[in-house]
Amino acid sequence: MSDSDTPMADQARTLVALHRSDESYRALLDRAALSADVALHASATYVQVGVDVGNGWQRQHNGGVWGTDWFGRALASVIYIYVNDFHEAVYLIRGTDSAGGLLHGREQYTMTFAENALPPVDRNCGGFWSLTMYDKDAFMLAGAPGGRVNLGTVDLDAGDLVFRDGTLTLHLSHEEPSDPAARANWLPAPDGEFCLIIRAYVPDRTILDDSYQFPDVIRKQ
């Protein structure tokens, strides 16, 4: 426990002592804890968590280094399994398209990167990036066609993704695209609501300061 944790730890000890001391305190604190837990989980959704960093993507600027940001730490504990120091890995999240509509597998979406503007990570230090598909309950898709639950550096290195006219367009939908190039770049979605996370490991300074803009998620009209 660091020095910055001391005030919170002292407060916790006081509340535990009150909880043990009297039935009325116990009932009051139990109700407060239940209310706080409900509010936390209501806030920790893929529709809105973190700070908007452009084109509808959100992230915690202090991810993994929360200090006394107890609410931010609690949000991360609800959503993520583990969070690295943001200097080592940045996590961007969203549950909506460019128009603010909830992402849903019945729709067709695209994300388009310029070939010379792929996510800037330090490949010399093992950096890579990925776009991962999750269902609305934050689980990866168990039955994704071909086991494909994400796209990114690994697929690019393997030559599995197709560039057209100097761009890389990723296709997100439940239904498999008929066009061969779109099918090569297809990230299967569930048949209901879904959410997306971009992970950028060993991110460049332009990701850290938000000057690099990840592309928006555009719904096909």
Short description:
By secondary structure, the chain is of the alpha+beta class. It is built from six helices and eleven strands.
Quick tags:
22% strand; 6 helices; four-stranded antiparallel beta sheet; 221 residues; alpha+beta
Q: What is the rounded distance between the termini?
A: 52 Å
What's the rounded overall pLDDT mean? 90
Characterize the biggest β-sheet: 5 strands, mixed
Number of strands: 11
Number of helices: 6
List the helices and strands and how they pair.
Layout: H1 6-21, H2 23-43, E1 51-52, E2 58-59, H3 70-79, E3 89-94, E4 109-114, E5 128-135, E6 150-152, H4 153-157, E7 163-164, E8 167-173, H5 180-184, E9 186-188, E10 194-201, H6 205-208, E11 218-219
Parallel strand pairs: 8-9
Antiparallel strand pairs: 1-2, 3-10, 4-8, 4-11, 5-6, 5-10, 7-8
Overview of the molecule:
By secondary structure, the chain is an alpha+beta fold. 28% of the residues lie in helices and 22% in strands. The chain has helices at residues 6-21, 23-43, 70-79, 153-157, 180-184, 205-208; strands at 51-52, 58-59, 89-94, 109-114, 128-135, 150-152, 163-164, 167-173, 186-188, 194-201, 218-219. Strands 4, 7, 8, 9 and 11 form a 5-stranded mixed β-sheet that branches. Strands 3-10-5-6 form a 4-stranded antiparallel β-sheet. Strand 1 (51-52) and strand 2 (58-59) form a beta hairpin. Helix 1 (6-21) crosses helix 2. The radius of gyration is 21 Å and the shape is elongated.
